[in-house]
Amino acid sequence: MHDRTEDEARPERWAGLARYLSAVVPMLFHGGIMAWVAFREPGRLTALLVDVGLGVAGLALLAGWRRWPLPVALATALLTAFSSTAVGPAYAAYVSLGSLRGWRPLVPAAAVSFACLAVSATSRGIDQVAVVSLTGGSTILAALTALGLYLRGRRDLAASRREAALAARRAERQRIEQARLAERVKIAQEMHDVLAHRISLLSMLAGGLAYRTDLGAQETRELALAIQENAHQSLNELRAVLGTLRRDDGPPEDGPGGADGAGDVGGAGAGGPEAPQPTLAQLGALFDEVRAAGQRVEVADSIEGRELLPPQTGRHAYRIVQEALTNARKHAPGSRVTAELGGRPGGGLRIRVSNPVPPGGPSPGPGGRLGLVGVAERTRMAGGSLSHAVQNGCFVLDVRLPWEGVRRDPTPGRG
């Protein structure tokens, strides 16, 4: 920030130096002529000293050119009616007025400057020298008007460029902040999916351990080990998600989980190696895990060419099934869940999960319906469609995800 301010102030300092030089050079010229006249005519020394004094006063008035540009221009112009050395400061103040305020204030300043020029030129009578002086002064005044307006245009152009650069920087910062916010929303969704699954499993296992009185020592030990293992997995997965959040210090980059809309933690640009994300290949382990915890799950899998499913779609499918099983445990504990998976390349992927609705309707529990919101968001990011309804006493969640067909090279023709 300091360097940029210094860069912007440097041209102003050079402009101020040029302004004073443009005022001093004519003063030195006229002062030299007056010194020569004083040397030739000692009797005019007093008048010449007054002339130089007024010129120095005009130079002192230039100190307020930025704060009071019009009064300074008018005051220095009035001095030129009595002092030829004040012409330099008057010209400098006139050009500064045009560069700061544009053409409107130049009108009264030009009128006063011309009037004072006429007074100075005709103070000793109207002759050929006065006419030439008045004509030359008018020409110089017109040139100074054009110069002041030109500098004003340059100033406006530079200001507009600075404003455009600032607006671009603000827009870039806003885009980065929005991208970071979107990335954090994705991480929060990932955290919800992971922890809701693990905590619901822990709740089911702990409930079995608390309420079943027919368990032997070995079965109790197995349940306790399962609780310990799921708690350990919860900590590991939570640590992985929070680690991704801590590493997200720079602007997000396009890549997996970024501009492609994958929405999963651990893509490129997350900053360092990440644990592998689950795909469709890990669904079998997920079903085994929930069955071991006591959830009754029936699976009908008719997917063809599952190895051709894009990993991004596989991640979404895994999380959708995981969230559907979590919802069933939360809202219909103890019910049998049916998961139907089907699809093929070019035909899309279908996930249908159903479970009986308990008497009295599903129990909302804490965070009710947030699971469906997460499933809907994942489905949207994957470009799929979602429907859910109660049919024949069962809650049915139906998700369809796109699955493009495999592109094959055309068979070369025979020569």
Automatic annotation (TrEMBL):
It catalyses: ATP + protein L-histidine = ADP + protein N-phospho-L-histidine. Residues 255-272 have a biased composition (Gly residues). The keyword Membrane applies. GO terms for molecular function: ATP binding; phosphorelay sensor kinase activity; protein dimerization activity. This is histidine kinase. Residues 183-248 form the Signal transduction histidine kinase subgroup 3 dimerisation and phosphoacceptor domain. The chain crosses the membrane at residues 20-39, 46-65, 71-94, 129-151. PANTHER family: NITRATE/NITRITE SENSOR PROTEIN NARX-RELATED (PTHR24421), NITRATE_NITRITE SENSOR PROTEIN NARQ (PTHR24421:SF10). It comes from Nonomuraea muscovyensis. Residues 356-365 have a biased composition (Pro residues). Keywords: ATP-binding, Kinase, Membrane, Nucleotide-binding, Phosphoprotein, Transferase, Transmembrane, Transmembrane helix, Two-component regulatory system. One of its GO terms (cellular component) is membrane. Its EC number is 2.7.13.3. It is an enzyme of class 2 (transferase). Residues 245-276, 329-368 are annotated as: Disordered.
